[in-house]
C-alpha cells in the first residue's frame, strides 16, 4: 500500500516531448490512500502542528534582541549585503521589536507570523550561513514527500524528472523517470521560482537549486512548515499519458548531525556549513539510503576492502554518509570517481586518512572529484585534503572579522587561549587599531593551520577534475577556491559557479560561550528559549593565488568548463557528466611517483621509486636538500647517505623544470 493515490487525467494522450505549459485543467476527484511511511515515526503535517505555538511575548522579545545583537555586533557581511541587496535587516528587527512592545500575551500575533517575519529578515541578506533557527517542536524535524525531483536539460528544454523513490513507496505509473509538469496547479518551473524566493542563496543558481530541493524536503529547523497539507503533482508517465498524484506532507525526525557546533572546541570555531544543505543531505540519506544511515550510526558492520575497485563497483567506506568511491567507465577511459557529500565531520585527520585510503584504491590514471550538493562543514577537513592532490605547498584561504566593539571584546578574551584551542590572537591587533584607523575589516589570517595543511603531502599523482554545482557552499566553496587557486586541475561546473558562501559560521550558543569566558555577568548574550537558535557568518574568506584578496562571498568559484545535466545524467548515474569529466582528464599529462623507503644501520637511506612523466627527482631530509637525480620512466633506486636521525623524507618530481609530483614519508 502507499500513502498516495493516482488517477488518469481524462484528456487525450500526449507525446512526452510536448510542452506542458498549455495543458488544460480537468475536473478530478482524488482521495488519499493509506500505507506505511517512508521514515519511522512519521506523522501527518496537520497532526504535528498541533504541538506548535508556545512562545510567550517575553520569549519573542528575547529572540529579537539577540538577533539585533548578532547582526549588528558579529555579522561580517552586513556592510556587503546591505549594499549589494539594498536591505536593512537591523532596521526590520527594530520595527519588529517596536511592534512587540505594543502587544500583550493576549493580543500578540500568531506564532507562525512571528517565525515568518524572523525568517524573512534573515533570508533578506541572502546568506545561507546566517539563519534564524526555529525552536521546539520544529528543531530536528523534517517535512517530506517520499520522492525526489531533479532538473535536467532534455534537448533544448529544461525538464523536471522524478529520480528516486523512498523505500516502501510504490504507486502505479508514478515511478522513476516520469516528468513533472505542474505543482499544486502551477507550472513546475514557476513553483520552483516561488520556492527559490524564500531561500537565501547568494546567486540565482543557488536559490533555484534550493527551490528544487524544497519541493519535496523541508528542514523545519530552518523553514516554516508547508502552507499546504498535501501537494497535487501533475505528470507525464512513461507512455506520455497525463496523470495526477496527491501526496500528503509527512513530518519525521531527521538523521542526527555529525558535529556539534555549540561547544567550545576548535571544530565548532572552524565551521563553514550551509545548514540547509546539511539537513537536506541527511534527510535524503534517511529517505533513499537508510542502510548508509544505519552504518554511519554504528548499527551495521562495514567490510572494508584493500583491493582496487573493479569497473562500476563501489569501494566500501568507513564513512558512508561522507564518501562514495567507485571506478567508472567513460568514453575517454576508466577513471576514479570520488563523491564527497559533506565535510561536516568531528575529526579532520580521520577524514583525510579515509580520503587517502579511497583514492589509493581507485584508478591512478585520473580522478573525478565530485562535491556537488556538499554544504561544507569543518574547514580543516576541506583545506587539509587539498595537499593530497598536488605537489605544491598549500596556502590556506585567509579570513577577516568585521571590526565591531563586540567582536573586539571576543578576540581580546581569546587572543591567547590554549585551554580550548581557540586562538583569536592574530586578528586582535588590527581590530584594536581599527578604533583609530576606522577600518571596516580586520587583517586576514587563515583558520586552518598551514602546517596541518601540508603535513601529509601529495598522495595522488594522477590528473584531477573537480565537479561542482550551485549547492556547493561554505567549506566546499573554500575547498573549490583552494583547488582552483593552487591550479590542481580544471573545475567542471554543473552551474556557472558554486553557491558563493565562503565564510566561517558561528552559532549564538558558541558566541555566548566565547564571550562568557571568563564568566561575565555583563555579557550581552542571553539564553534563547525553547531551543531556538541563530547563526551568523563571523569571518569572511579571501582567495589566494591569482585572485588573492577577492572575497568568496557572493562571487563563488566560477567553473572553468560548464556541463548541463541531461536526462541520462539524472536517470542513469551521471553518464554524460562522467564523459565530460573523462574528456578533461584524458587531455592532461599522466604522472606517477611511487616510493618505498628503508634506512640501514649506517644511516644510508634507500629509495625505491616508480616514476612516470618525470625527468628529475630531488630528495629532501627534514626539509633540507640532499640530492638531485635525472630519471626515466620506470623503476629507479636511489641511495642517500647521512639519513641517521632524520624524521621525514620528501621526494619532489619535475618535468621540464616544473614541479609535477611529490611524496612525503616518515622515517
Number of helices: 18
Give the percentage of residues in beta strands: 25-35%
Structural class: alpha+beta
Percent range for helical residues? Answer: 25-40%
Q: So what's the overall shape?
A: globular
| CATH classification, class level of one domain | Alpha Beta
Describe this structure in words.
The protein is α+β, with helices and mostly antiparallel strands. Among the domains are: 271-403 and 438-586, 2-enoyl-CoA Hydratase, Chain A, domain 1, CATH 3.90.226; 592-666, Sandwich (Immunoglobulin-like). 26% of the residues lie in helices and 25% in strands. It contains 18 helices and 32 strands. Strands 1, 5, 6, 7, 8, 10 and 11 form a 7-stranded antiparallel β-sheet that branches. Strands 14-15-16-17-21-22-25 form a 7-stranded mixed β-sheet. Strands 3, 19, 20, 23 and 24 form a 5-stranded antiparallel β-sheet that branches. The protein starts with a strand and ends with a strand. Mean pLDDT is 89; it is low at 1-35.
